[in-house]
Amino acid sequence: MKGNKGTFTSPGHPNEYPINTKCIWIIEVPVGSTEKANCEYDFVEIYDGPSEKSRRLRKLCGNEIPAAIRSTSNTMTVSFFSDRSRQEKGFAARFLQNEQSRL
Protein backbone atom coordinates (compact mmCIF):
# COMPACT_ATOMS: atom_id res chain seq x y z
CA MET A 1 0.00 0.00 0.00
CA LYS A 2 1.34 3.41 -0.87
CA GLY A 3 0.24 6.81 0.34
CA ASN A 4 0.54 9.23 3.23
CA LYS A 5 -2.13 7.40 5.27
CA GLY A 6 -4.44 4.42 5.05
CA THR A 7 -6.16 1.55 6.81
CA PHE A 8 -6.14 -2.22 6.49
CA THR A 9 -7.87 -5.13 8.24
CA SER A 10 -7.47 -8.83 8.77
CA PRO A 11 -9.56 -10.98 6.38
CA GLY A 12 -13.25 -10.93 7.30
CA HIS A 13 -12.94 -8.11 9.87
CA PRO A 14 -15.04 -7.27 11.88
CA ASN A 15 -16.12 -10.92 11.71
CA GLU A 16 -13.89 -13.94 12.27
CA TYR A 17 -10.83 -14.45 10.10
CA PRO A 18 -10.20 -17.85 8.43
CA ILE A 19 -8.00 -20.45 10.11
CA ASN A 20 -4.51 -21.24 8.83
CA THR A 21 -4.05 -17.83 7.18
CA LYS A 22 -1.02 -15.70 6.41
CA CYS A 23 -1.34 -12.15 5.05
CA ILE A 24 1.42 -9.64 4.37
CA TRP A 25 1.02 -5.90 3.85
CA ILE A 26 3.93 -3.75 2.70
CA ILE A 27 3.31 -0.13 3.60
CA GLU A 28 5.22 2.66 1.90
CA VAL A 29 4.86 6.37 2.56
CA PRO A 30 6.61 9.10 0.56
CA VAL A 31 10.41 9.12 0.74
CA GLY A 32 11.73 11.22 3.63
CA SER A 33 8.93 10.02 5.92
CA THR A 34 8.54 7.26 8.50
CA GLU A 35 5.48 5.27 9.64
CA LYS A 36 4.04 5.50 13.12
CA ALA A 37 2.58 0.93 12.68
CA ASN A 38 4.03 -14.63 24.10
CA CYS A 39 1.69 -15.19 21.15
CA GLU A 40 0.77 -18.84 21.04
CA TYR A 41 -2.02 -18.93 18.43
CA ASP A 42 -2.48 -15.95 16.13
CA PHE A 43 -0.34 -12.83 15.89
CA VAL A 44 0.80 -9.82 13.89
CA GLU A 45 4.46 -8.99 13.31
CA ILE A 46 5.67 -5.56 12.21
CA TYR A 47 9.01 -5.17 10.43
CA ASP A 48 11.11 -2.07 9.83
CA GLY A 49 11.55 -2.35 6.07
CA PRO A 50 10.26 -3.93 2.86
CA SER A 51 10.18 -7.62 3.90
CA GLU A 52 9.94 -10.12 6.73
CA LYS A 53 13.75 -10.27 6.64
CA SER A 54 13.87 -6.67 7.92
CA ARG A 55 14.34 -5.96 11.63
CA ARG A 56 11.22 -6.88 13.62
CA LEU A 57 9.76 -3.95 15.55
CA ARG A 58 6.87 -5.67 17.37
CA LYS A 59 4.96 -8.91 17.72
CA LEU A 60 1.35 -8.35 18.80
CA CYS A 61 -1.48 -10.64 19.86
CA GLY A 62 -4.57 -10.77 22.02
CA ASN A 63 -6.34 -7.51 22.83
CA GLU A 64 -3.14 -5.49 23.00
CA ILE A 65 -3.48 -2.02 21.51
CA PRO A 66 0.04 -0.70 21.05
CA ALA A 67 1.27 2.84 21.14
CA ALA A 68 2.41 4.20 17.79
CA ILE A 69 5.10 2.07 16.14
CA ARG A 70 7.62 4.05 14.13
CA SER A 71 9.82 2.83 11.31
CA THR A 72 13.26 4.20 10.51
CA SER A 73 12.45 4.51 6.79
CA ASN A 74 9.41 4.99 4.61
CA THR A 75 8.57 1.27 4.40
CA MET A 76 7.13 -1.25 6.89
CA THR A 77 5.97 -4.84 6.47
CA VAL A 78 3.02 -6.17 8.48
CA SER A 79 2.46 -9.95 8.64
CA PHE A 80 -0.65 -11.63 10.07
CA PHE A 81 -0.61 -15.32 11.00
CA SER A 82 -3.48 -17.52 12.19
CA ASP A 83 -3.09 -21.16 13.13
CA ARG A 84 -5.56 -24.03 12.71
CA SER A 85 -6.93 -24.08 16.25
CA ARG A 86 -9.15 -21.03 16.69
CA GLN A 87 -10.73 -17.99 15.06
CA GLU A 88 -11.19 -14.53 16.52
CA LYS A 89 -12.63 -11.19 15.33
CA GLY A 90 -9.40 -9.97 13.75
CA PHE A 91 -8.04 -6.45 13.69
CA ALA A 92 -8.07 -3.11 11.94
CA ALA A 93 -5.00 -0.91 11.71
CA ARG A 94 -4.03 2.41 10.22
CA PHE A 95 -0.80 3.99 9.14
CA LEU A 96 0.19 7.63 9.01
CA GLN A 97 3.02 9.47 7.35
CA ASN A 98 5.32 11.27 9.78
CA GLU A 99 7.37 14.07 8.23
CA GLN A 100 11.06 14.05 9.13
CA SER A 101 13.00 17.24 9.38
CA ARG A 102 16.40 17.38 7.71
CA LEU A 103 19.39 19.60 8.42
TrEMBL record:
UniProt KW Cell membrane keyword: no
Every CUB domain range: 1-98
PROSITE patterns xref list: CUB (PS01180)
Signal peptide (UniProt feature, chain positions): none
Keyword set, alphabetical order: Disulfide bond, Repeat
Recorded superkingdom: Eukaryota
Gene3D superfamilies registered for this protein in UniProt: Spermadhesin, CUB domain (2.60.120.290)
Protein name listed in UniProt: CUB domain-containing protein
Organism in which the protein naturally occurs: Schistocephalus solidus (Tapeworm)
